Amino acid sequence: MNGHGQLLQAVAKTTQRVENRRGMTIEAEERPRLARILPFLTLTVFLDLVGYGIILPLLPSYIGELGGSPQVVGILFASFAAAQLVAMPVLGRTSDRHGRRRVIAISLAANAVAMILFSLAIRHHALWLLFASRILAGVTSGNIGACQAAIADISEGAERVRAMGKVGAGIGLGVMLGPWIGGRASTLGDAAPPLFAAAMAFVALVGVLVFLPETNTRALVTARPHLSLKALGSNPKIAIVMTLYFFMFLYMTTLQTALALLVAERFGWTKERVGDLFGLFGLVTLVMQFGVVGPISRRMTSPSVLSGAGVLAAIGLAAIALASSSTVLVGGLVVLAMAVGLSHPQLASLASQYAGPGQQGTVLGFAQSSGALSRTIGPILWGSLYHHLGPSAAFLGGTSAAVVVAVVASIARKAPRTVEP
Known about the structure:
Elements: H1 2-55, H2 59-65, H3 70-98, H4 100-124, H5 127-139, H6 143-153, H7 157-185, H8 192-211, H9 229-233, H10 236-267, H11 271-299, H12 302-322, H13 326-355, H14 360-389, H15 391-411
Helix pairs in contact: 1-6, 1-7, 1-8, 3-4, 3-5, 3-14, 4-5, 4-6, 4-8, 6-7, 6-14, 7-8, 7-11, 7-13, 10-13, 10-14, 10-15, 11-13, 12-13, 12-15, 13-14, 14-15
């Protein structure tokens, strides 16, 4: 019996060594794939966000031409964010169970259809069709989360943060170039910009179908356990990540809600100068994500970077709120852009790290859904503060949200590491 037990132990140890070697071989095979896949993932989100940027600045004028009021503009933005709020956890779970490639392809295809509906709404002066277009786009906007989960499948540590930063830079570049392309496309007719956006999504879709391999190989072998919002919320670090997403996107919504109003009222700036401000914001964010995130991630942990970025964001928002000169305001905007450029890749990396293997899509989906909730609430909250308390109130409220980010990020080091299946 003794000899039999020793034999079993020897067999178990041998099997474990073989499995460890096999795991190391698989990991060694997967590592180089990041270098091949990352440029394509970055290009995918870039093309998709160019399409988003093309129509984003034109939405208010389109709605006005269709007979909608400024209140309808707010409702349309809120409907898109509310659709994301509901759909993102489902899309994240789907990418865990059935693969990232499928979710990215479905999202891009649906976005192309949504943009075609958008152009039809303009052509036929149908406001309800415009709402249908934005809701469809929101319900199927899972490609960014799936691309981030794909990176998490084949990277870790500082390498993952750098990769997330490059994808974030692709997002920022797309949002920055999109409005410029949309403005030029609008000279061809009102329906041209959304058709250009549809073409961008279609090109990205073809690229995904032809070139993108599946990174979530676990989904092809085993079914992943169902992870509910309650289960996620009971894990301290996932709750922290969702809180960070909520308050970070909450303070960011001050820009889209109140910046143009503040500079017009305080300095008499035109739409062109407001466009320059947003262009500067995008440029600084891009530089941070391409050139600064990588070196910082090698020296500091993600919670430390997020805490410092929260402090920077608070300083930038407070400077904007209290600026009595354009120089101070632009300086505050630059500091805020630096904070956002640092935060996005670190937060996505932190969420995937705490999710553990096989749950990145689900956790990132719920986290981004938390961000969608703040994008639904934020414009209403900051617009109300601006209307009732004055131009500075919205940005001082955003300052408070940024302080919450700094405090919550500092707590992240003490919670358990991963979500248990």
